[in-house]
Amino acid sequence: MRHTIFSSLSIFCLLLTLLMFGYDSTKGYGRFLKFLNDISMLMPFILGGIGIVSALLGIKGEFRFILVVLHSFLLLLFLGIYIKALYGFS
Description:
Layout: H1 2-21, H2 30-39, H3 43-56, H4 62-87
C-alpha cells in the first residue's frame, strides 16, 4: 500500500512538472501554474526532487526506472532552460 502511494505521488509530480514545461496562460490550468511559479521560480526542481525520491520509495521494477528517468530528463531540461535564461541573454 505504501509503495503505491509513493508511486502515485511521483506520477502527480511528473504531471505537474510536464504542465509547467508546457505552460499556457490561456488554458484553464493557467492560474494554478502561475500560482506555482509565483511561489518559487525553482518549483520544477522542487517537484522533480520530490518525484525522484517518491519514485525510489515506490513500486519496484521497470515502473520505478521509468519514473526516475522521466523526472531526471525533465530536471535536465529545466536546468538547461534556466541556465540559458540566466546567462544566455546577456
